[in-house]
Amino acid sequence: MTNINNIQSISQILDSQSTKKSKSSGPAQGFESLLNSVLEKTQESEQGIQATELGEIPAMDFDIQTVSSIVTDKTDKLLTSLESYAYKLDDGNITLKEIEPMLEELNADAASLLEETLSLGEDDQSLIDIARSTAVTAKTEYLKFQRGDYL
C-alpha cells in the first residue's frame, strides 16, 4: 500500500513541475501570444469587421469541353486549313516548296482528328462521319502532294 501512496505523491510533484514550466517564458509563450492575437482578429471579424485574409475564396468558372466539341473544333480547323491550301495551290505565285509545311500540318491535324473520333460514342455518328471524311480528304491531299501529282 505504501507504493501506491508514493505514486500519488510523484504524480503531484510532476503536475506542479509542468504547471511551473507552462508559466515560464520561452517558445511556448511566443506561441501563446501569437495564438491570442489571431483569436482577437477572428473575434473582431465576427463582430462586423471584415477580415479579407480569412474570407471565402470564390471558385473560378471552368470551361469544360466535351469530346464532341473538341472534335467539332478540330474538324472546323482542318476544313479551314484545307480551304487555305486549295487557294494556295491555285495561286501560281506560290511554289510547292512553300506549300509543303502547310501539308505537313494538315497531315498532323488529320491524324489528331482521327484519334479524337475514337472517343466519340454512337450518338455522335454524324459528327464521326464528317470528321473522318475531312481527315481522309486531308490525308489524301498529303499523299497526292508527296506522290508528285501537282508537279
Would you give an account of this structure?
- The chain is mainly α.
- 74% of the residues lie in helices and 0% in strands.
- The chain has five helices and no strands.
- It is elongated, with a radius of gyration of 37 Å.
- The mean pLDDT is 77.
- Residues 15-37 are annotated as: Disordered.
State the helix count: 5
Strand content: under 5%
According to DSSP, the number of beta strands is 0
Give the N-terminus to C-terminus distance in angstroms.
112 Å
Please describe the biggest sheet, giving its number of strands, its sense, and whether it closes into a barrel.
none
Q: Which structural class do the helices and strands define?
A: mainly alpha
Region (Disordered): 15-37
Topology:
Blueprint: H1 2-23, H2 27-46, H3 67-90, H4 96-117, H5 125-147
Helix pairs in contact: 3-4, 3-5, 4-5
Region (Disordered): 15-37
Compact overview of the structure:
The protein has 151 residues and is mainly alpha-helical. 74% of the residues lie in helices and 0% in strands. It is elongated, with a radius of gyration of 37 Å.
Provide the descriptors you would attach to this structure in a database record.
single chain; 151 residues; elongated
